[in-house]
Amino acid sequence: MTTLTLAKALNMGLRKAMEDDPKVLIMGEDIGKLGGVFRVTDGLQKDFGEDRVIDTPLAESGIIGTAIGLAIRGYRPVCEIQFDGFVFPAADQIITQLAKMPLRSLGKLKLPVVVRIPCGGGIGAVEHHSESPEAYFTHTAGLRVVACSNPVDAYTMIQQAVRSDDPVIFFEPKRRYWDKADVDTSPAATWHPFDAARIAKPGADLTMLAWGPMVKTALLAAGAAAEEGRDVEVIDLRSLNPVDLPLVIESVRRTGRCVIVHEAPVYSGLGGELAARITEQCFYHLEAPVLRVGGFSTPYPPSRLEEHYLPDLDRVLDAVDRAFGY
Amino acid sequence: MTADVSLGDQSPPELVQLLTPEGERVEHPDYDIDLSDEELKGLYRDLVLVRRVDLEAVALQRQGELGLWASLLGQEAAQVGSGRALTDADMAFPTYREHGVAWCRKVDPVQLLGMFRGVNHGGWDPVEHNFHLYTIVIGSQTLHAVGYAMGIQRDGAESAAIAYFGDGATSQGDVNEAFIWASVFNAPVVFFCQNNQWAISEPLEKQTRIPLYRRAAGFGFPGVRVDGNDVLACLAVTRKALADARSGQGPSMIEAFTYRMGAHTTSDDPTRYRVADELESWKLKDPIERVKAYLSKNGIADQAYFAEIDAEADELGRDLRRRCLAMPDPQPLAIFDHVYNEPHALLAEEREQFAAYLNSFEEGAR
């Protein structure tokens, strides 16, 4: 076991992926000598060279577009988008090209490209640095979308993403980059399946679904709810497309209540899709409607207001209260 | 706003030409080409057959057998010239109009029809032919070509990538990013721009104030304008550009100056936006007629040869038509094929549900 921050776990996972497969490349802005603005790629260019850890021109569509070309040539590029709000210049290449190439080629082409996106708020940043754009990508067939929430998953999931023969959008919770945990980096460690959810805390009275940065918030809320005698089960979804629905359905049928927590705006967010599916499959087991807690239908606010925008312990507990009020 | 002499090279644009519209061979100090009679006849055959494939596809669309077709009429020389400059190891990234390049890459013409008939989004194996799938989003493929070329560099291979695009595409951000990437990484890629003067209804003036090939200089690599209706010049210029790229001299841009003789696609009506005189003047520069004149005048081919090629073209058209009509509609469940390379629970579930729904009808899954 090694104690690692989430950022360092990603760094070590990337290093391992590069050691395991010479076709793995890393590309992005400021990822070389600087090691990325969050230092996730720290030291990699020094050890693997500029041909494998590529500081790119400052153009996101170019990063994804050239990564696609490299993948057609047989490489496995891992692209860093510096911040969530800067992925949109690359959205065209991701949605019209990356996601659709296997289908367009009738399976002749694989595009094993990973797009890493630091996401979410809570770090007091300026505009475009705090967004949660996961629903744009879960809505795009052909992409796998995952979100890690802790150092253990960060270390394993980034390696699984690199090994996947499908394109993967990989969300990293930027305000949890500095959270620490013990990570088993030995080859003997067992890895959780890539597209499986995980019960982060078992419980009997209510199922709480969260991913990425909100898992920690959900766990804190579950702890607070326990003081009021409510046994909350927290599920870390991990994979957002596909979603591990059987695990979620089993849990909600058992608990009869469900609260979904995400930072993105509630309206048309991934929570809406989950609520619909849960309602459809757990209709006779539900004691209350599936409730959602998330961002408002506003642009992400200036940072002095973000604590009101982001779901926090109290807003999550308020939803728990409402779920028990039916 | 007035022109500023400090904007760069203001001299009249130069055009590389080796074969005049009248079929006269002319010399160029930087580009020469020495082809055998058989090679010259081969180019003529390519041009004629490619035009015939295009003509048949237009007819198939008019008869309702294709939903759409993007005709290459007038651009045969640009495509055959550049396409024949490629070696097997080079990789081409086309738009949706590169039927002539596809021909040179040995793609069966019937495979081009699949996406226009609506049975698939691209039917050939891009790896087998080193000819990527048609890209419909304007300019996206230029970045793929550059990335592929970066892969060639990393493999230490001696090949090159070529990116096809049009005059309209030069306004796209992706194309400009591709120029920057190629330049910064010195990637072995040739940017082959077919300037056919029109982006659907928008004339070249809506895309640029300078000759397109001169943009290359601003990005830090050479650019050249070639007579896009001259198959010899297109072949010679592309050969040199590819050779330079393969030998580590980096990217370059070729502007093949040509004309879209037909509509943008079969859905378009060019009479709404361009004058007939323009078309007539370009007819005099036809890419096939000049080769035919050259072959005749120099005794390289005779009427019997031309008749033989015409007959081959007609048979190719008939065969294409027959195989197009025989192309089966895909099965409904094919919707779910190849979306992912690895198992995907959601898709598997939807597929199963849809199959059950189809089977709920008496006739079962149709």
Automatic annotation (TrEMBL), chain A:
Residues 4-179 form the Transketolase-like pyrimidine-binding domain. Its cofactor is thiamine diphosphate. GO terms for molecular function: magnesium ion binding; oxidoreductase activity. It comes from the Bacteria. The keyword Oxidoreductase applies. InterPro entries: THDP-binding, Transketo_C/PFOR_II, Transketolase-like_Pyr-bd, Transketolase_C. Gene3D superfamilies: 3.40.50.920, 3.40.50.970. Keywords: Oxidoreductase, Thiamine pyrophosphate. This is 2-oxoisovalerate dehydrogenase subunit beta. The lineage of its organism: Bacteria, Bacillati, Actinomycetota, Actinomycetes, Streptosporangiales.
TrEMBL record, chain B:
The keyword Lipid biosynthesis does not apply. One of its GO terms (biological process) is branched-chain amino acid catabolic process. InterPro entries: Alpha-ketoacid_DH_E1_comp, DH_E1, PdhA/BkdA, THDP-binding. Pfam families: E1_dh (PF00676). One of its GO terms (molecular function) is magnesium ion binding. Residues 48-315 form the Dehydrogenase E1 component domain. Its cofactor is thiamine diphosphate. Keywords: Oxidoreductase, Pyruvate, Thiamine pyrophosphate. This is Pyruvate dehydrogenase E1 component subunit alpha.
